[in-house]
């Protein structure tokens, strides 16, 4: 009987680890929190302090845990340069979708976010830029009206200030609770980014895990330069849906960042620890004579 209970406990622990591995990691700061956090991929127990020091990247296998929007901005922007844009923009409930309002309220309380996207003005390596980040903790970074508006306004702000636009994408696609209004954001964001590029603006798309659905089919794939974090899943439909549709087995690593780089869809796969330096280098390389260093 004792062996049965022990086996049952081990099975429940394994299920718990798998479930927790599917959720974006956020450091547990409360008293009595576990000293170790298990890597969802290699299952090695890593000290929480080491996760923090390594920017939420597993030191054993290189697995990149998702990063919240404000944490992401703190990793790339120069200290003291952060100025949030359109913080007041939040999702409505145009369809009176059952349970949607309560879900939004709960997510705002748990994540500290008002929406799935955060946009800001700031500097990277001393050079001004507008940076937007999608946060997968908030309805998987899905794009509703507020998210689409924030991305469009970020492009317009970058256009007016004549500074580069950088967007960190992480999304499960369009937000079904907002119906056709959500799908309309694909055209709006793509148009805003295209107008910005047509006027000579530099747009850098940074694809993180996962970047899928309507976000992939709109602004995520319009970058003048497209970067991706290691092993990020990037595509419109997921690999299982594609396999079921075409009735064929997909190649190894299909839709992962490295596969897309090999096939020309991604310019570079950049580990998290090198992202800030890579962005600073790109901004310097694309800086034009007389660029407005005082724009932000």
Give an overview of the whole structure.
This protein is an alpha/beta fold and 296 residues long. It folds into 2 domains: 65 residues, no CATH class; 220 residues, 2-enoyl-CoA Hydratase, Chain A, domain 1 (Alpha-Beta Complex). The strands form 2 sheets. A 7-stranded mixed β-sheet has the order 3-4-5-6-7-8-9, sandwiched between helices. Strand 4 and strand 5 form a beta hairpin. The longest helix has 21 residues. The N and C termini lie far apart (68 Å). About 6% of the residues have low confidence.
Predict the CATH topology of the largest domain: 2-enoyl-CoA Hydratase, Chain A, domain 1
Report the radius of gyration as a whole number of Å: 20 Å
Number of domains: 2
CATH domain class name of the largest domain = Alpha Beta
Q: Helix/strand/pairing class, anyone?
A: alpha/beta
The chain-level mean pLDDT equals: 88
The total count of helices amounts to 10
Measured as a percent range, the helix fraction is 25-40%
Q: What's the CATH H-level homologous superfamily of the largest domain?
A: 2-enoyl-CoA Hydratase, Chain A, domain 1
What is the count of β-strands?
9
Sequence of strands across the biggest β-sheet: 3-4-5-6-7-8-9
User: From the coordinates shown, what is the CATH architecture of the largest domain?
Assistant: Alpha-Beta Complex
Distance between the termini: 68 Å
The shape is: globular
Most strands sheet: 7 strands, mixed
Poorly predicted regions: 12-30
């Amino acid at each position: 009987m004792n062996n049965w209970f022990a086996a049952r406990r081990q099975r429940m622990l394994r299920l718990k680890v798998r479930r927790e591995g599917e959720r974006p990691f956020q450091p547990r700061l409360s008293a009595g929190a576990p000293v170790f956090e298990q890597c969802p991929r290699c299952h090695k127990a890593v000290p929480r302090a080491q996760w923090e020091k390594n920017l939420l990247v597993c030191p054993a296998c290189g697995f990149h845990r998702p990063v919240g929007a404000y944490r992401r901005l703190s990793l790339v922007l120069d200290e003291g340069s952060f100025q949030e844009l359109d913080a007041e923009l939040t999702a409505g409930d145009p369809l009176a979708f059952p349970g949607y309002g309560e879900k939004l309220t709960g997510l705002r309380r748990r994540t500290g976010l008002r929406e799935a996207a955060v946009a800001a003005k700031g500097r990277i390596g001393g050079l001004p830029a507008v940076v937007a980040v999608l946060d997968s903790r908030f309805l998987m970074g899905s794009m509703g009206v507020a998210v689409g508006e924030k991305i469009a306004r970020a492009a317009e702000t970058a256009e007016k200030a004549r500074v580069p636009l950088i967007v960190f994408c992480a999304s499960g696609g369009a937000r079904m609770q907002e119906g056709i209004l959500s799908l309309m954001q694909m055209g709006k964001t793509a148009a805003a980014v295209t107008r910005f590029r047509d006027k000579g603006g530099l747009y850098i798309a940074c694809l993180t895990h996962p970047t899928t659905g309507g976000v992939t089919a709109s602004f995520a794939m319009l970058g003048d330069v497209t970067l991706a974090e290691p092993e990020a899943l990037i595509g419109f439909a997921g690999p299982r849906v594609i396999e079921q549709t075409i009735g064929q087995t997909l190649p190894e690593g299909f839709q992962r960042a490295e596969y897309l780089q090999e096939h020309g869809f991604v310019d570079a796969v950049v580990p998290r620890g090198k992202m800030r330096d890579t962005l600073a280098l790109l901004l310097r390389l694309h800086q034009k004579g007389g660029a407005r260093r005082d724009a932000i």
